């Protein structure tokens, strides 16, 4: 009995031309090896076919995870070792992923190369994604118009449309979107209307005397600094009593802004 594979625990995986597993295990046992039908802690070698390695089988997957402990070799390693009457270097008979790529059939049933077929699918997917649209919103502050009885806001949008076939072109389109007009009810009981956002507008009026209407609207516009502000000041009096309020509201033109109310005061002093 030979001792070529003394200390080796060999497991087989795949279908071999040299014979079935029973025949192969008899051969390695005759030369000093121990056979194991499954991978164990004692397994030192996994003898596989290139087809089984390429799948990969469960045994191959497990052996890869224990690459430092288990050598994955072809049956040729066994035959050559027996022929030369010594255990040969396993590295010359190991199966690598690169070797598999050279030997595994990469054509389908119709003889079409699978890589070419996949590349064709990828190109087809790219063609379906021909048009991409990006939107950039910009608001033209000077296009905001505010009237005493209605509000109309016009917004300009720039839309970039990219089309891609063999080359890429960009087209910029100006789109105008006009928001629905908002009707504002203004109650005028005297010489000036009460601000529509004053909470007590239904029972107050703008105070006035023989010479002055106590109602003021200020505006600040600076195109260079993008300023377009308003400031409202009103002295208001209750319709049914001598009580007074000072109402102020301020902000950017076209928006409600902020407000403040002082009072009620029992006299004008």
UniProtKB/TrEMBL annotation:
<dbReference type="GO" id="GO:0003950">
    <property type="term" value="F:NAD+ poly-ADP-ribosyltransferase activity"/>
</dbReference>
<dbReference type="InterPro" id="IPR008893">
    <property type="entry name" value="WGR_domain"/>
</dbReference>
<protein>
    <recommendedName>
        <fullName>NAD(+) ADP-ribosyltransferase</fullName>
        <ecNumber>2.4.2.30</ecNumber>
    </recommendedName>
</protein>
<dbReference type="GO" id="GO:1990404">
    <property type="term" value="F:NAD+-protein mono-ADP-ribosyltransferase activity"/>
</dbReference>
<dbReference type="GO" id="GO:0005730">
    <property type="term" value="C:nucleolus"/>
</dbReference>
<dbReference type="InterPro" id="IPR050800">
    <property type="entry name" value="ARTD/PARP"/>
</dbReference>
<feature type="domain" description="WGR">
    <location>
        <begin position="203"/>
        <end position="269"/>
    </location>
</feature>
<dbReference type="GO" id="GO:0070212">
    <property type="term" value="P:protein poly-ADP-ribosylation"/>
</dbReference>
<keyword id="KW-0808">Transferase</keyword>
<feature type="compositionally biased region" description="Basic and acidic residues">
    <location>
        <begin position="111"/>
        <end position="123"/>
    </location>
</feature>
<dbReference type="Pfam" id="PF05406">
    <property type="entry name" value="WGR"/>
</dbReference>
<dbReference type="GO" id="GO:0006302">
    <property type="term" value="P:double-strand break repair"/>
</dbReference>
<dbReference type="InterPro" id="IPR036930">
    <property type="entry name" value="WGR_dom_sf"/>
</dbReference>
<keyword id="KW-0520">NAD</keyword>
<keyword id="KW-0328">Glycosyltransferase</keyword>
<feature type="region of interest" description="Disordered">
    <location>
        <begin position="100"/>
        <end position="149"/>
    </location>
</feature>
<dbReference type="Pfam" id="PF00533">
    <property type="entry name" value="BRCT"/>
</dbReference>
<dbReference type="InterPro" id="IPR036420">
    <property type="entry name" value="BRCT_dom_sf"/>
</dbReference>
<feature type="domain" description="BRCT">
    <location>
        <begin position="1"/>
        <end position="95"/>
    </location>
</feature>
<dbReference type="InterPro" id="IPR001357">
    <property type="entry name" value="BRCT_dom"/>
</dbReference>
């Amino acid at each position: 009995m030979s001792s070529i594979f003394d200390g080796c625990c060999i497991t087989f995986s795949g279908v071999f031309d040299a014979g079935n597993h029973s025949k192969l295990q008899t051969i390695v046992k005759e030369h000093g090896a121990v056979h194991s039908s499954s991978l164990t802690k004692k397994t030192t070698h996994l003898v596989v076919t290139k087809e089984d390695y390429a799948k990969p089988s469960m045994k191959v997957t497990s052996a890869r995870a224990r690459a430092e402990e288990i050598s994955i070799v072809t049956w040729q390693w066994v035959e050559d070792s027996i022929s030369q009457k010594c255990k040969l270097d396993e590295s010359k008979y190991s199966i690598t992923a690169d070797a598999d790529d050279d030997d595994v059939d990469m054509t389908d049933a119709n003889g079409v190369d699978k890589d070419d077929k996949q590349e064709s699918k990828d190109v087809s997917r790219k063609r379906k994604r021909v048009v991409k649209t990006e939107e950039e919103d910009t608001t033209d502050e000077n296009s905001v118009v505010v009237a005493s009885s209605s509000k109309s806001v016009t917004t300009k949008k720039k839309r970039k449309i990219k089309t891609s076939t063999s080359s890429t072109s960009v087209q910029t389109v100006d789109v105008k979107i006009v928001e629905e007009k908002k009707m504002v009810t203004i109650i005028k009981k005297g010489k000036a209307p009460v601000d529509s956002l004053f909470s007590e507008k239904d029972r107050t009026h703008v105070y006035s005397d023989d010479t002055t209407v106590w109602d003021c609207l200020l505006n600040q516009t600076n195109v260079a600094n993008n300023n377009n502000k308003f400031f409202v000041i009103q002295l208001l009096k209750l319709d049914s009593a001598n009580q007074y309020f000072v109402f102020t509201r301020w902000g950017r033109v076209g928006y409600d802004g902020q407000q403040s109310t002082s009072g009620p005061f029992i006299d004008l002093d």
